Each structure stands twice: as structure tokens, then as C-alpha cells.
Q: What sequence folds into this?
């Protein structure tokens, strides 16, 4: 199969993310990276998606009570979706500010919680939407155009 | 700079990646904060850190970081070493502090590269 054949159809992968599981944290992002590489997608795009996916996955492991990550690949773009079931973000504008963080000391000891996650996902992507409701959960969608 | 040269300048112990010592790094970043590393590091970078956990390897994986130097004599655990082998990442350990290690590499001509 040539790269073009592989890229002609859309593809969806779903990963379940467990809250507080720091041993597994990053596995989904690692698998996404591997998959995109196998599909022959441009290395720069793969890198941007991988960074965003890893940041989102760490966010879910650190802050959420669990959720799922979906990756949709079609010939024009890669769409990354993350959805958790809570607790939700009180002030999204504040959460999007570089340096603002509500992470625990434990997350900080692991090298996270610098308040760079969401801004970095936005920076890496071509389109970025985040919606959140306290008590319901957070949905994040990031789109990455595949240059042809 | 050759990864092998990094090893010599830091008098470092090679943990894994013997066959990769001829690979090159074009810049370096010293940090214990993986969030910052993820936000600023470019590819073919050397990561120097005092942090010793699986997230260091994960971070390196996402960024295509080819080599990691653990400072202050830290030796990663077998599970971390295994992860690095799977991803072709060189692991080095030096007795130098983060500041001293960065200084020696800078003196040797390696630079940081921030976007």
C-alpha cells in the first residue's frame, strides 16, 4: 500500500485515560505518535500532534477523574479530541494563562504543573477549542492541518 | 556536538545507547520542569535533568530528544532504562550538578535554542 492509499480513507483511534495512573501516563500519546509515523505523516506535524496529545493526556491524568482521547485522521487534517467526565474547569480564561496551574505537589514533583499545558496545546495546533462545565467535565478539540 | 563528546566533557557514565554515541545534538536544554521542556524544546536536543521518572522519557519521546543526561549521579530505574532502549534514546549519568553540566557543555560549544 502506498502512502496515498493509506491516506485516502479516514481513521479513528480511541484511548481510555485513567485518572492518577502516572505509570501509564503518556502511553496514548506514544501510540498516537507511532501511528502517525507509520502513516508517513510529515515529521513536523507528528511532533506537534504528539506534544499536544501528551499535554492533554497528562492534564487528564493529573486533573480529571478519567476520560477518553480520540484521534481522527483524514487526508486533510488530524483532529484530536479529549473528553473527561469531571470535575471541570472553573475559569477557562485563567486556565489558558501561561503559568497558571492548580496541579498538586505530586504532579509538580513529576515535572508537571507549570501552567504551560493548555497554552502549549493551543500553540501546537491550527485550531483549538476547549469547553468545560464544573461537575460535568471538559472537552478539548485540536485540529492539525496536513500540508500537501 | 557528538553525543560521545557530551559523555567525555561531562565525564559521564553511559547507561544505554552505546551504538548511538556518534549521533549529534544541535542544542541542549537543562530543566527539571517537563512542562517547560515540552513548550520550548526543538528536535535533536540534548536534555539535562535532575528529574528521574518515566515522564522524562515520555517527554523526550514526544520531542524527538535523542539523549538525556541525568545530573548529580542519578541512575534511572530498570523500567526507565527499558523505555529508553525501546525508543533509541541515549541515557548518560554525570556527577556534575545541572549548572556545572550545562556550563561545561556551553564551554564546549553547545548552545540552547529557544523559539
A:
Amino acid at each position: 500500500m502506498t502512502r496515498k492509499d493509506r491516506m485516502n480513507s479516514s481513521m479513528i483511534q480511541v484511548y481510555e485515560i485513567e485518572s492518577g495512573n502516572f505509570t501509564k501516563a503518556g502511553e496514548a500519546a506514544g501510540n498516537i505518535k507511532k501511528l502517525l509515523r507509520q502513516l508517513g505523516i510529515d515529521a513536523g506535524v507528528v511532533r506537534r500532534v504528539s506534544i499536544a496529545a501528551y499535554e492533554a493526556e497528562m492534564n487528564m491524568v493529573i486533573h480529571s477523574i478519567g476520560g477518553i482521547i480520540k484521534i481522527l485522521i483524514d487526508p486533510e487534517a488530524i483532529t484530536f479530541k479529549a473528553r473527561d467526565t469531571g470535575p471541570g474547569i472553573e475559569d477557562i480564561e485563567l486556565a489558558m494563562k501561561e503559568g497558571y496551574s492548580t496541579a498538586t505537589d505530586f504532579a509538580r514533583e513529576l515535572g508537571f504543573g507549570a501552567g504551560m499545558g493548555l497554552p502549549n496545546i493551543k500553540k501546537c495546533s491550527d485550531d483549538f477549542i476547549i469547553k468545560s462545565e464544573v461537575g460535568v467535565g471538559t472537552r478539548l478539540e485540536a485540529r492539525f492541518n496536513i500540508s500537501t | 556536538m557528538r553525543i560521545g563528546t557530551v559523555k567525555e566533557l561531562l565525564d559521564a557514565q553511559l547507561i544505554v545507547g552505546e551504538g548511538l554515541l556518534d549521533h549529534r545534538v544541535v542544542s541542549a536544554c537543562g530543566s527539571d520542569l517537563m512542562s517547560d521542556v515540552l513548550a520550548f524544546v526543538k528536535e535533536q536536543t540534548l536534555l539535562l535533568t535532575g528529574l528521574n521518572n518515566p515522564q522524562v522519557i515520555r517527554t523526550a519521546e514526544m520531542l524527538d530528544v535523542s539523549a538525556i543526561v541525568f545530573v548529580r549521579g542519578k541512575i534511572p530505574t530498570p523500567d526507565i532504562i527499558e523505555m529508553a532502549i525501546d525508543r533509541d534514546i541515549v541515557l548518560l549519568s554525570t556527577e556534575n550538578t545541572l549548572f556545572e553540566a550545562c556550563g561545561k557543555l556551553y564551554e564546549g560549544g553547545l548552545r540552547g535554542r529557544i523559539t
